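Why do we care about 3D structure at all? Because function follows from shape, and shape follows, mostly, from sequence. That is the central idea of this module. The next example makes it concrete: a single protein chain, its amino acid sequence, and then its structure expressed as tokens.
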Amino acid sequence: MISWKKEPKKVRKHIFFSGMVQGVGFRYRSYYIAQSLGLTGWVANMWDGRVEMEVQGDPDSIGRMLEQLYEGRFISIDRIDSEDIPVISELGFTIKN
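And the structure:
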């Protein structure tokens, strides 16, 4: 009997975070959470005080990442703007700038 293991569907999100998200370890927390959940993508500070992120993986893991970011000790997220974008081939999660 052949067993077919179905891989979880991957999605990619382009996200902007507003609030107290710069100078509080947001990018580094994002990096470590992404690593622990097997997500790929990048995170960067923006000139206007927001943080921009592209994150890719299964939707449940991305949801867990967002939950853990909300729980950050010094992080205070007031708003998240997110859109789905095409999945790309990449390895790892990086911090820009």
